[in-house]
Amino acid sequence: MYRTHTCGELRLSNAGQTVTLSGWVHKARKMGGMTFVDIRDRYGVTQLVFNNETDADLCELANKLGREFVIQVTGVVAERSNKNNNIPTGEIEILATELVILNEAQTPPFTIEDNTDGGDDIRMKYRYLDLRRNNVRANLMLRHQIAFETRRYLDQMGFLEVETPILIGSTPEGARDFVVPSRMNPGEFYALPQSPQLFKQLLMVSGFDRYFQIAKCFRDEDLRADRQPEFTQIDCEMSFVKQEDVLNTFEGMMKHLFKFVKDIDMNEPFPRMTWHDAMKYYGSDKPDIRFDMKFVELKEAVSGHNFVVFDDAAYVGGICASGCAAYTRKQIDELTDFVKRPQIGAKGLVFIRCEMDGSFKSSIDKFYSQDDLKAIAEMFDAKAGDLILILAGAKTKTQKALCELRLEMGFRLGLRDKNVYAPLWVIDFPLFEWDEETQRYYATHHPFTSPNLDDVPLLDTDPGQVRATAYDMVINGVELGGGSIRIHDSALQNRMFELLGFTPEKAQAQFGFLMSAFKYGAPPHGGLAFGLDRLVSLFAGLDSIRDCIAFPKNNSGRDVMIDAPSVIDQSQLDELNLIIDIKEK
Hints:
Distance between the termini: 59 Å
Number of domains: 3
Strand content: 15-25%
Helix content: 25-40%
Number of strands: 22
CATH class of the largest domain: Alpha Beta
């Protein structure tokens, strides 16, 4: 056998035993007549000792070892004289008696260390080397544990894991599909699923009243830290449930995972916030409630003072940063530059300092008296030493900018602690979004989301005011999962398609199989999908989901390790009856 133990297994209780280890050379160092080599595998690191006095030939061979050589070593476990308390095997070392070089290695392009000298691009190109690093490997181990425990929990709750197809039909609503040409059906294409939505609804019609799947999903959309073109969902659906049943079930699962992964007891019910309040007070449908700093709307209070910026704005709102009145002009200028960035888009920033003597200093002193500024400060419940920051402009755009400013201040003040978790259910989303360019409604979630039954009459009179029976779980400003109660009534589903601009023929072509299934007795049903990548990223304290995916894509959607996507042979194109015609941008 290549090994009797792993490199993280031996302890002082093994002293005197003859053992064989196999792994990679992590470090090698020569000290006088002794050579010390750290051997590493997935389980840990063990120190090897080669003594020139007892076996010169063996020591000479050890001196030829380079980083990442694959070796097998046999020796006797001994107590270390200079113990290393930073590693579990730090009390022992192996006095080597045999050494076999199983495979030599080139010098890696970056150090295989937690704090590596490799940049993102080089690490993604040599991802198989990056995966040898302890912290990256730990992320994937955590992912395994979360997926395994999720399966165990849902199994105990009566859910069945059912696999659904990867090659499906295209439904071009929402994000763009990845499409796959069919050789056997010339001119026709499969799509890769953005989610198993239609199939899990069909499983409910089939009588599988509790389904789940850890499913691969695909969306052809622009990337960012929490997006990849292929990602993984913990996808779930339940029959004969209302919204409250779904929320309770998956709040329970999340509490279980927090206890399992972090040993954190979450005994209190997760707070709930309507989408309307989330936008009003935080400018986001995924607010970070680890800290307060709610928006205060000021339009009525500040209008009529001949300050054109406020008078002409559709929306004026601000936040109060406690204890920040000592901010210098330079620091405030930095915040102004921050909100004026193109991706944020504010035109400027107004500040009011609440001085310790009870007076106020502001960038709008010439338009607002001390009494006016005091009245504004009272709207924020501001205290001496606080700093009020105000933005103005178009409502939606300004709220989004104010949201970014709030998060930036939370970061600067140390209020976004990754070891603090603030869960939240966001509910009562709008059912529809109106698009000015196409002059039509789009489904906020998807066409199968049920309206709030109290709002059904508004479908004919004011669709924009209809609330969806939809919900998102948000933790620390990250949308971890979302779902809805589905429409199970054919007549209501047809009405939904009509409002979304589907002709009966188009609805039949894209969703006819689902509508047909509903005619055979569809139960009330609903579900939720968690992003497994985002969940692992949250628990691991990562800034990007890429760090918990074994082989991720870069920000351009490329796998730089295998150089994909790539061109294919003309013979393959001919088989698929495809002609490539790349138009200049």
